[in-house]
Write the structure tokens for this entry.
Amino acid sequence: MLTLDTIVYSNEGKRMTYQYTYDKSIAHYFNKKEAYYVEYDDPISSLPESINVIPFLANIMPIAWFVGFDVYVNELDETFYQSLQNLKEEFAIHFPQIKTDTKLHVAKMVANVLPKEDCALLFSGGLDAFESLTRNLDKNPYLISVLGADIAVDDQKRWHDFKRFNQEETIINKDRLCYVASNLRTFYTYEVDLLVGVGWWGKIQHGMALLSLIAPLSALHGITTTMIASSNTIEVNFGWGSTSETDEKVRWANQKVIHDGFHLRRTQKIENIVAFARKTGQQVKLRVCYSEWRKGYNCSRCTKCQRTMLGFILEGANPNDYGFEAPKDFYELIFKNFEKDSVMTIGVKYEWQCLQDKAKQIQQPFIINEVATEMAKFNTFVNLDIDGVVNKNQAKLQKSKEWKFVIISKFPKLFNFYLKLRQKI
């Protein structure tokens, strides 16, 4: 079992560190050097424990479901207690290895009620988040960004850049920015990742973990509606940590979650971003990439950047106006994803398929440099066999992925040295 012993407040009540103990049999799942913590811009120490315990349980309980141990806490919001039961049942649909007999033991249930009715949006600065913001500007939502999610909790340079980009963005109301810092991706060991064959953050954790961080903020600001931008549509159905089925089951007090934009493909979201820019004259600078090669808003070379830039090109817009620097070998980079030995997951294939579907519907994309050459390459993309690279050699790829992950996790200093050396070269 695992027991939450106490919540320790520091930094003038802005930071809470959860002190917990656990049996030796499950000790290898937790980082002994750092307990889980969350830190806010404002003091949260006076808030009810039944609210402040929510970020802890949202991260601990999924581990308990997969490993099979009980968790004990002193008190908890009764709505969130039921939410956890519903979430476990939902995740078990896609992950049958979940042990449904694990229990959460709560000494005292509390019925909380938030006094106001305001709204918030989890804000990463990416395409999904910005598109959601442009559609909900009239709501003037709190924008909540998390250090420790996409940006490593100790990466102060990228975090400084992130906050600076927010200050520079004209459509953002600076008075509604909220920043949260948490070691939500490092308080556990690589053994947790291996519970789902690598990818715990994406497959299980990130949706409910990020949403749960808003619980104390909801008590401070009266946030009763929280929006989290969708990643996929109903066309995609596989186990993932942020879907309409999971996100909208995350509830506490009288708060609800909206998995926003679920009806839109990413190509349609780009259409909306471009339409917003043409209507208002404000071209937002997207931050879709956190590659170690990134120097500005994006690296403009990784596959995520490639797909986003292509989306703007298909919409007849210059990707350079939206935070990118389209490289001269843009189409060559795209074609590398479909080479003979390439392997592609169902989710990534879906993203490329959406782009190809739109490419087949337009006559001419935005031209970066030269018409004839780029049109020839564009037509090559239209006729690519995307299905041919999906899940090829999947078992071999999975074993290689797990092996690399374990090596990196066991020797992080050596891996960081390698990254720095590679950057210099």
Remarks:
- The mean pLDDT is 91.
